[in-house]
């Protein structure tokens, strides 16, 4: 490897690297261009002749100003000079900095430049940067001027004119921001009642009216690409706006805009920041969780709390004694199946189909007692057998993982199941006794043979506890386990489920894309031939026409109709709607196909193999393929409480699905609340910027006039409780702060216990399922009376370009239909062709390739205000510049191995890992580039290089992933991560695509629910 000299021009720093070709085993030469690092050196300025002299600022002022001029100047006077060829840099590494560095740096900052006074021109170097000011405010002013104040004389200002060439992009970006400051403050000053929300529409209307003839303004406005909502741009530059408002005096800084509750200039409160706040819980929840968090819970007793009076049952104990099998067996009431009977009498005790019995344990179970329901008696010679359905004890369900079971009558509770023993019937001698099970009850007498059963337990696909109902019990003429049911008649099932114009997904037909489902529409039924005629939709990838820049879920209408009769290949229904060509697609289609939502605006001609926009048939197609909003119509929307709401992606995704309406949002972090406010689609919401403990305490104690949801009004609770304590990325999982965050799951259950909503959705990292708190959470919810289902959802299977696994727990009150987990709609990263899906995987490049380049993060675009990264150290920048872009996903260790990174720029602590653990060297990563054809790692609050998730370096540029790119990985361009915080993602737990898919499952459950307020009018396709 050739020697690298950072002082040389780019053309002299070309390194020759030898790598193996992918296609052949031969060795090819590949040239990697490493530009010199951006330091303030003479090579960046214009060529300086040997005769040119560099002066200090003091020497320049002594030469340009008379010795006594400073004393004769009045308080309102100032001396102005011009500055050409300027540049700003820090004191440590001479690293170039943004022009507005005052907000976050403790370094001393310098500037170089040519000071101009009339015909005098003096080159100044390493002058200390003090502060700056923007002039030119007012409607009568068009131009503005940026000046910096001298650190040696407060009455001396330098007006900035031309930057050094390498500083040009930074300066142009700042000038755009400076004009934003002028226009924003002009708007606020001339409209004193303006608040932050007025920048959504009012600012654009006002400023365009007052500057419609201003050419400078028109050029400035062209940079936002037609955007009329300036909240995000203002929020990302609020520190700069406040800086100028403060310098302009109280006429500006005391305006209502800067004290608005939702204005990012209203800085976060810091009082009690380090105080560990106790988690408020109800008494029932306290009983379950105080053992885990003894010092962190504060139980409060509701005013209306009363004790339950136990129910007393009187039973005949003789019926439930142990059976003696020495007497003769009598089989009665034969069934249609040969040798099968409905009942048998032995030892004076009659056992019937549907009776619950205790049987002998044959596997040495620690629980010691097994229970089941009899479904059939079989007479075989002189002996007898019986088929059965198992009743599980708590220890035989997922509740066995409870570290401590504090449930009342826990030894009395059984769980219904569909797990049967039909293929291998058991001998009658294995029955110990008949037992008395109180189905649908929540308690029973404390007798050895008495039990109660409230739930059906299922673990086949996901662990779930469903409300028991009598229809589950065995009938005289059939079993409920399913193994004896007749085979499915796919045709009858199809014609019963679907109607004309419904759209369905089929397994790939001959000639289709092998791993993607085929989308069709039902045209007509042929009852005589027992077939159906389907209209075929095509994907862009199935045509020879190059796909335009359009969403992945756009398909193509066609005239091809074919007969279909292999109904076993029907996968499921899907939603297809017609959108007029050129119109904005509705919100349900903005989730890259999540929930199997497709749309079309164009037609594919199979004969000519051409694609054309649909215009003439639009009216008929709009009726046959109506919009999603038309289908759901006036569906009743559940009133939602959004706990730990963050930036609002979870609640927003549910609202996109159309079945919830967020009425209350609670989060104690101001940055999160400001972001939530920014994303609102309606104003009738009570946003509470308080701790959940304050809200819950006021609600429990019935504090008058408190801003809390009224009891009885909350119908669904969405909660993304803090996950840091459960995440393996947290290195301090066992400190008091992490434990306090963990205890907040008890707060969620307390809200459920107090408000008794119809539905609950809890989200957290999947690692929570290995914690004791999670199973206490389940036990507590079951005791309160909620149905439970939980499972892990992968974000990339819902159209996200992110490796993000999250645990979701559904809760539903008795009488409601418990929602399921959303179906997989997209291919995964490592799926084979044998795995089918509706859509291909969405890659990183699909997500962010349209964003403009920002180099090392120094370039800023008004049309993408949060497309920026946090400020990196000089050493980190040097490392990132030396990590090659090909092969993809290379990291620091790869660059070290191939000599791109010299010892001068190495990180000793990471090099030491390879020496200390040579066998595990392949697993180490540091400063790893993301693979454009792969997925983002889990998006964190701040994207920085670390040993946990090192894949945070852009696949092509020498920088970290930007805030906008990270927000896109969360599947939204609406969620603005920088409201209230410049370089962090706010409220990033649930990608909006995933939330939308979960919201659709809630809609399906509501359609099936028999509740009087359920959305029964919605016939979901």
UniProtKB/TrEMBL annotation:
<comment type="similarity">
    <text>Belongs to the class I-like SAM-binding methyltransferase superfamily. C5-methyltransferase family.</text>
</comment>
<dbReference type="InterPro" id="IPR050390">
    <property type="entry name" value="C5-Methyltransferase"/>
</dbReference>
<feature type="domain" description="BAH">
    <location>
        <begin position="349"/>
        <end position="468"/>
    </location>
</feature>
<feature type="active site">
    <location>
        <position position="723"/>
    </location>
</feature>
<dbReference type="GO" id="GO:0032259">
    <property type="term" value="P:methylation"/>
</dbReference>
<dbReference type="Pfam" id="PF00145">
    <property type="entry name" value="DNA_methylase"/>
</dbReference>
<feature type="domain" description="BAH">
    <location>
        <begin position="496"/>
        <end position="615"/>
    </location>
</feature>
<keyword id="KW-0808">Transferase</keyword>
<dbReference type="InterPro" id="IPR018117">
    <property type="entry name" value="C5_DNA_meth_AS"/>
</dbReference>
<keyword id="KW-0539">Nucleus</keyword>
<dbReference type="GO" id="GO:0005634">
    <property type="term" value="C:nucleus"/>
</dbReference>
<keyword id="KW-0238">DNA-binding</keyword>
<dbReference type="InterPro" id="IPR043151">
    <property type="entry name" value="BAH_sf"/>
</dbReference>
<dbReference type="InterPro" id="IPR029063">
    <property type="entry name" value="SAM-dependent_MTases_sf"/>
</dbReference>
<dbReference type="InterPro" id="IPR057215">
    <property type="entry name" value="DUF7893"/>
</dbReference>
<dbReference type="GO" id="GO:0003886">
    <property type="term" value="F:DNA (cytosine-5-)-methyltransferase activity"/>
</dbReference>
<dbReference type="InterPro" id="IPR001525">
    <property type="entry name" value="C5_MeTfrase"/>
</dbReference>
<dbReference type="InterPro" id="IPR001025">
    <property type="entry name" value="BAH_dom"/>
</dbReference>
<protein>
    <recommendedName>
        <fullName>Cytosine-specific methyltransferase</fullName>
        <ecNumber>2.1.1.37</ecNumber>
    </recommendedName>
</protein>
<dbReference type="GO" id="GO:0044027">
    <property type="term" value="P:negative regulation of gene expression via chromosomal CpG island methylation"/>
</dbReference>
<dbReference type="GO" id="GO:0003677">
    <property type="term" value="F:DNA binding"/>
</dbReference>
<dbReference type="Pfam" id="PF25423">
    <property type="entry name" value="DUF7893"/>
</dbReference>
<dbReference type="GO" id="GO:0006346">
    <property type="term" value="P:DNA methylation-dependent constitutive heterochromatin formation"/>
</dbReference>
<keyword id="KW-0949">S-adenosyl-L-methionine</keyword>
<dbReference type="GO" id="GO:0003682">
    <property type="term" value="F:chromatin binding"/>
</dbReference>
<keyword id="KW-0489">Methyltransferase</keyword>
């Amino acid at each position: 490897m050739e020697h690298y000299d950072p002082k040389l021009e780019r053309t002299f720093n070309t390194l020759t690297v030898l790598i193996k070709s992918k296609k052949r085993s031969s060795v090819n030469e590949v040239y990697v261009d490493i530009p010199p690092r951006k330091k303030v050196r003479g090579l960046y300025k214009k060529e300086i002749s040997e005769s040119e002299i560099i002066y200090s600022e003091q020497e320049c002022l002594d030469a340009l100003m008379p010795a006594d001029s400073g004393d004769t100047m009045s308080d309102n006077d100032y001396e102005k000079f011009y500055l050409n060829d300027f540049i700003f840099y820090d004191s440590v590494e001479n690293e170039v900095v943004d022009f507005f560095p005052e907000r976050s740096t403790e370094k001393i900052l310098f500037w170089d430049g040519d000071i101009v006074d009339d015909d005098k021109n003096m080159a100044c170097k390493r002058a200390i940067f003090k502060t700056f000011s923007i002039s030119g405010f007012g409607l009568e002013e068009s131009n503005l001027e940026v000046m910096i104040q001298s650190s040696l004389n407060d009455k001396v200002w330098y007006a900035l004119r031309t930057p050094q060439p390498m500083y040009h992009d930074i300066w142009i970006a700042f000038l755009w921001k400076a004009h934003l400051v002028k226009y924003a403050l002009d708007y606020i000053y001339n409209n004193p009642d303006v608040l932050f929300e007025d920048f959504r529409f009012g600012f654009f209307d006002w400023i365009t009216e007052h500057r419609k003839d201003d050419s400078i303004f028109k050029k400035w406005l062209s940079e936002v690409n037609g955007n009329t909502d300036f909240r995000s741009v203002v929020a990302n530059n609020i520190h700069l706006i406040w800086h100028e408002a403060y310098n302009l005096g109280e006429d500006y800084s005391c305006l209502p805009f800067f004290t608005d509750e939702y204005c990012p200039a209203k800085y976060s409160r810091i009082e009690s920041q380090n105080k560990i706040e106790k988690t408020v819980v109800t008494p029932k929840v306290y009983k379950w969780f105080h053992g885990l968090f003894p010092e962190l819970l504060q139980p409060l007793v509701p005013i209306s709390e009363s004790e339950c009076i136990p129910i007393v049952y009187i039973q005949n104990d003789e019926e439930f004694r142990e059976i003696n099998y020495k007497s003769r067996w009598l089989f009665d009431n034969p069934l249609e199946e040969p040798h099968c009977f409905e009942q048998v009498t032995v030892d004076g005790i009659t056992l019937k189909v549907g009776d619950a019995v205790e049987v002998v344990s044959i596997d040495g179970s620690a629980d010691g007692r097994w229970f089941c329901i009899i479904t059939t008696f079989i007479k075989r010679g002189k002996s007898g057998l019986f088929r059965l359905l198992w009743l599980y004890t708590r220890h035989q369900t997922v509740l066995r993982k409870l570290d401590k079971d504090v449930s009342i009558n826990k030894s009395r509770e059984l769980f219904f199941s569909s797990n049967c023993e039909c293929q291998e019937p058991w001998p009658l001698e294995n029955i110990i006794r008949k037992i008395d099970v109180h189905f649908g009850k929540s308690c029973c007498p404390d007798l050895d043979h008495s039990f109660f059963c409230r739930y059906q337990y299922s673990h086949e696909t996901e662990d779930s506890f469903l409300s028991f109902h009598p229809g589950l019990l065995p009938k005289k003429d059939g079993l409920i386990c399913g193994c004896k049911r007749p085979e499915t008649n796919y045709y009858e099932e199809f014609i019963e489920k679907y109607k004309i114009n419904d759209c369905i997904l089929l397994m790939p037909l001959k000639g289709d894309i092998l791993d993607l489902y085929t989308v069709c529409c039902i045209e007509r039924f042929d009852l005589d031939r027992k077939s159906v005629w389907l209209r075929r939709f095509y994907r862009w990838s199935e045509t020879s026409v190059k796909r335009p820049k359009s969403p992945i879920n756009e398909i193509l209408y066609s005239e091809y109709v074919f007969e279909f009769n292999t109904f076993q290949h029907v996968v499921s229904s899907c939603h297809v709607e017609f959108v007029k060509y050129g119109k904005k697609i509705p919100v349900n289609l903005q989730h890259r196909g999540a929930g199997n939502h497709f749309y079309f605006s164009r037609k594919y001609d199979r004969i000519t193999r051409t694609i054309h926009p649909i215009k003439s048939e639009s009216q008929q197609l709009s009726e046959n393929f109506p919009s999603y909003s038309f289908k759901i119509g006036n569906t009743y929307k559940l009133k939602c409480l959004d706990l730990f709401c963050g930036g609002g992606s979870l609640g927003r995704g549910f609202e996109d699905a159309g079945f919830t309406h967020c009425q209350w949002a609670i989060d104690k972090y101001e940055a999160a609340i400001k972001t939530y406010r920014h994303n609102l689609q309606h104003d009738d919401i009570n946003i509470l910027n308080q701790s959940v403990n304050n809200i819950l305490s006021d609600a429990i104690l019935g504090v008058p006039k408190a801003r809390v949801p009224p009891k009885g009004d909350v119908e669904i609770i969405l909660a993304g409780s803090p996950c840091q304590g459960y995440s393996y990325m947290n290195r301090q999982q066992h400190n008091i702060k992490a434990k306090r965050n963990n205890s907040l799951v008890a707060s969620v259950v307390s809200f459920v216990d107090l408000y008794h909503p119809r539905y609950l959705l809890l989200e957290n990292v999947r690692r929570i399922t290995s914690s004791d708190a999670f199973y206490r959470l389940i036990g507590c919810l079951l005791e309160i009376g909620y149905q439970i289902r939980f499972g892990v959802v992968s974000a990339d299977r819902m159209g996200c370009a992110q490796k993000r696994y999250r645990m979701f727990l559904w809760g539903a009150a008795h009488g409601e239909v418990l929602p399921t987990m959303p179906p997989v709609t997209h291919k995964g990263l490592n799926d084979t062709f044998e795995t089918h899906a509706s859509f291909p995987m969405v890659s990183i490049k699909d997500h962010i390739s349209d964003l403009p380049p920002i180099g090392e993060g120094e370039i800023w675009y008004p049309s993408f205000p949060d497309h920026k990264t946090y400020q990196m150290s000089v050493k980190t920048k040097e490392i990132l510049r030396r990590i090659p872009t090909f092969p993809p996903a290379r990291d620091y260790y790869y660059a070290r191995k191939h000599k791109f990174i010299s010892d001068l720029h190495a990180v000793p602590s990471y090099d030491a890992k390879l020496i200390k653990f040579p066998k595990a060297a392949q697993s180490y990563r540091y400063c790893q580039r993301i693979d454009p054809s792969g997925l983002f790692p889990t998006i964190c609050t701040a994207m920085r290089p670390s040993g946990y998730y090192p894949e945070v370096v852009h696949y092509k540029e020498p920088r970290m992933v930007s805030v906008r790119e990270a927000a896109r990985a969360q599947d939204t361009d609406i969620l603005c991560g920088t409201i209230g915080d410049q370089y962090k993602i706010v409220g990033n737990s649930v990608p909006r695509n995933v939330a939308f898919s979960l919201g659709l499952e809630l809609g399906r459950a509501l359609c099936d629910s028999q509740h009087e307020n359920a959305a029964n009018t919605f016939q979901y396709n």
